[in-house]
Amino acid sequence: MRWIPNLVRSLALTSVCAIIVLALPAFAEDKPGDYQLEMHVKIPMRDGVHLDATVYKPEPMPGPLPVIFMLSPYPDDPEHPSAAYFARHGYVYAYVDVRGRGDSEGVFHPLAQDAPDGYDVVEWFAKQPWCNGKVAMFGGSYAGGNQWQVASQHPPHLATIAPVASVRPGVDFPISGNIMSPYEMQWLSLTSGKVLHAQVFGDSTLWTNAAKRLFLAKAPFNQFDRYAGNTTTDFQQWVTHPEIDDFWKRMGLTHDQVAGVNIPALVITGAVDGDQPGTLSYYRDHIASTDKHALDNYYLVIGPWDHPGTREPKQDFNGQHYEAASLVDVLRLHREWYDYTMKSAAKPAFLKKPVAFYVAGKGAECWKYADSLVAATTGKQVYYLDATGGAVSVYHSGSLLTTADGATGASFVSDPNDLSAADPKDVQPGGDLHGDGLIFHSAPFTKETEIDGIPELHLWLSIDAPDTDLGYALYLVDAAGKTRYLADGAMRARYRHSLEHGEAIHENQPEEYVLPAEFWFALRAPEGSQLRLIVGALNSPQSEKNWNSMKPVAEQSGADARVAHIKLLQSPDRPSTLTLPLGDPAATCTASATW
User: What is the pTM of this model?
Assistant: First the structure.
């Protein structure tokens, strides 16, 4: 999909850097207060390994207090402002290096050992004379995902978790839809060894060029660590698990493990947060719990943020401007949550219902509330893909029709030998698709329309190869022609029925492929704007390349290339459709981030 920039993946490239440079937001409520810290506190694990912690305490200590800690693979110094904030507000705060990172002993295997280690950390803190027996966790991204891992072990003294932008192995990182990307190697190099290679990680030119060299060499993806110059990581182990097997399930947890978490949880993500899929997969599993207490104390917040913005919201990013209501004081919200769950204070006033979500778009942006994420979507609009107009470019596009009358199909090609995506000048969203995709426009909206939820694409296709990668991107185009990214989705065709087991395409036989978007969002589409849908083959240096054979994809090279001819079908018994989720424009709106 050379013509669809993978927006969310590009945002994820800055995700870990956001953790590294995280500082106390300018709008965070703070107050003068003294605190003390103790460095290199050694916490024993059950196997004799010691993890290293930096502990912050109020000065003077009024007595035993609740402890908040982060378990992270990143160095602790950038976390200092948040640590000081909590210490000034009556908490002991600890930053703990995960096993094998920083000054902690042992060997680091990402996300593979944090569950038992986190359990031991919780129980060790609970026994210290300066702890009152209540322990909570804090953090985002990696340190959001491992909160669920630790909570699934049910340490007796873990009082609450507050996971932000939570990664979930096998869902959004290191693979999403069983498709990997060069970013995995970039992140592994950041956390390779004991120190943090932040400058190497942040050199986008270095990583773009490494991926391009692999792409142009037609080399298999499992060689990318050589192209990246670092063969000391877990990359080779990851690429040997292309399906959701026990390896990923142990790290990502099962449905029942997540549903069994029975402590209060404050969960935060963003509409374009690269780890939103992981966050919402935990949400869907958790709300299946039969524990009413757990359900009554689970709150989900979806802001208009990217991955860094889930910790430090910004009004301007990725070419979009958001109104002041988007600037939630996230650190204050955390403190009030900890006060509520560990100090018997009132629930944060911001949390009016179990789900809070931000409705973006020009005009009256605001926060809305719902009893569940499903309840936030109140309707739908089904569009039928019609390629009568040609569907080859913006100027010769197909249509998105509200009825199937007269709609026709079309064809496109997945040609792995086409290497033109290595030239950035060739990436033009909606330009000439060069035969590897189709483009469709809806009629302009006749009134302001609120879109709340996850779009879903149902494609009836006939494909003459055993496998291929499919994708789509959805945009909003305003009356002046300016585009705004809404959503995208991808599928490795062999996993159309299950991510656990691949199945070759039934060549030249019609089959339905269901591609849900990866991200939940809420947006008001103004009157006169219209939808633009681009559907096609994935073929980019920024994604693990499928050469369309049935060998494990990471092992495929140019020698395995097979051109796939893909027919998009459109008929009454095989309708290819886009389903747009709609919200209630009349629902109560709160146009303020203050409370």
Answer: 0.94
